[in-house]
Amino acid sequence: MAVTRRNGRKPIARILAEHADAAAGPPLARNLTAFSLVCIGVGATVGAGIFVLTGTAAAQYAGPALVLSFLLGAVACAFVGLCYAELAAMIPVPGSTYTYTYATLGRFCAWIIGWDLVLEFAMAAATVAVGWSGYAQSLLADLGLRLPTRLASAPGAGGLVNLPAAGIVLALTALLVRDNRDAARANAALVALKVAIILAFVAVGAAHLNPALWSPLVPPNTGTFGAFGWSGVLRGAGVVFFAFIGFETVATAVGETRAPQRDAPIGLLGALVLTTILYVAVAAVLTGLVPYRELDVADPIAKAIDAIGLGAFAVVIKLGALVGLTTSALTALYGQARIFYAMARDRLLPDTFARVHPVTRTPALSQGLIGVLTALVAAFVPIDILGELVSIGTLLAFILVCAAVLILRRTEPDRPRPFRVRAAPLVAGLGILTCLALMAGLPGDTWIRLAVWLGIGLAIYAGYGRHSGEPGAAPRA
User: Fold this and answer.
1) Are 210 and 288 in contact (CB under 8 A)?
2) 38 with 236: CB under 8 angstroms?
3) What pLDDT was estimated at residue 1?
4) Do 206 and 196 meet the contact criterion of CB atoms below 8 Å apart?
5) To the nearest 10°, the Cα dihedral for 423, 427, 430, 434?
6) DSSP assigned state of 475
7) Which domains are seen in the chain, by residue range?
8) pTM as predicted
9) CA–CA distance, 44 with 128 (Å, rounded to integer)
10) What is the mean pLDDT for each group of 10 consecutive residues in the chain (477 residues)?
11) Cα(390)–Cα(154) distance, rounded to whole angstroms?
12) Between helices 383-411 and 97-104, what is the axis angle to 10°?
């Protein structure tokens, strides 16, 4: 039986058997390594969070205490990352949180979280693309070239359409459609270049710091929750939590890894350590170079370099930002296609999303459709709305991952766990509470948008997924 009829849960044994079933169609290629997973994680996380949203979070919420916001986000991620590592090593298939939810809470909840993950991946890719556009335009301006405002900004941000943002999404989609191994190699090379440039920024910026800009570390609250003060630190953490979405992307890639039981924990936890160090260092240097209220721009690191006055180095940093944002968008688009692949195999989406190209061994058609739709979002939606939507969607997914660990410890206690979280009730419980606290720090209109989005998902489920994804249905090829 494919699922438990009482509540729509799908046993882990069945999930693994379906993933290995050759009769279900050509499988995704298994050619990634632990190093590939670390690079995917770093590529996903070190992007818009460090090159774009650092400025927004510092200028509007946390001020110099942005460092504390990143540390708070990292603590929450440490709890969640351990839970991801246990689940990814135990259930090494595409789908990540969607699949874990199907195994613990059933089909209906799996649909809800799968729909929520569209916010995390597709909206993340769109957010990063808008940031990429900002840095590209800054670099072109250094060369004396400027795009017409109406063609370089979304409605609500002073323009009609953001063509550079849409263009980078379509270009990366073309790469992902071809071969995941080529995409992984390109990502690894770009990640290495990106990290080198970030370290150069930290080193050069540290030599030009103005420590007076860090005082006070926590600016006084303006009288509104989340506008500086300690509530601002909390809200800033909720916003920059976007920077830690790499866990989900690594988990989606585990099904294409050669030795997932060993490589998944390395990829997940290795990426967390590296990115946290980079984030804290950049946040400290950034707020020590530019007054925090002046950082509310699409390219804050470029502004910091301009403040130093090193023209040639500014070009290098802006190129590094473009590289960083490129890898972040690449991995987000990759992850979205794998979530849809898993949902379509369970008949919760049309079978178009589960088709694997016999030559490239990628979900090529699904990847192309996702790329086109994401490009449209990047072209027409401002970055501030996108960033907060991604954060709340990510936090909801993380809560379910922590809950899944607790549930499976009770329902399948004897199942082999290649990586086992110690003190699981404490770790998973703290992960849930921390994520709830960060969600509470997000603005009310973000919650409203989440509710509207989930309402749309419920309507689609009622009209399609509830009937086509009935218990006992065989997975689609």
Assistant:
1) yes
2) no
3) 40
4) no
5) 170
6) P
7) 31-465 (1.20.1740.10)
8) 0.78
9) 10
10) 57 83 65 86 76 82 91 85 91 87 88 83 83 83 82 77 92 85 82 87 90 91 87 83 73 85 88 88 92 83 80 76 84 87 86 84 87 90 66 83 93 91 94 85 81 87 66 46
11) 18
12) 40
Secondary structure of residue 239 in the 3-state scheme? helix
Bridge partners for 32 per DSSP: 257
Please give the radius of gyration of the chain, using alpha carbons only, rounded to the nearest integer: 21
CA distance 372 to 176: 13
CA–CA dist 247, 335 (Å, integer): 10
CA–chain centroid gap for 311, Å, is 32
Q: What are phi and psi of 32, to 5 degrees?
A: -95, 155
Return phi, psi of residue 257, to 5°: -105, 145
- Structural tokens at position 179: 């071969």
Cis bond before residue 155 (omega within 30° of 0):
no
CA distance 90 to 310: 50
- The 3-state secondary structure of 130-186 reads HHHHHHHHHHHHHCCCCCCHHHECCCCCCCCCEHHHHHHHHHHHHHHHHCHHHHHHH
Cα distance between residue 261 and residue 270, in whole Å:
15
Q: CA dist 5 to 9, 158, 342, 411, 469, Å? A: 7, 53, 20, 16, 12
**DSSP line for 59-101:** IIIIGGGHHHHHHHHHHHHHHHHHHHHHHHHHS-STTTHHHHH
DSSP state of 8: -
Both tokens of residue 248? 């989900």
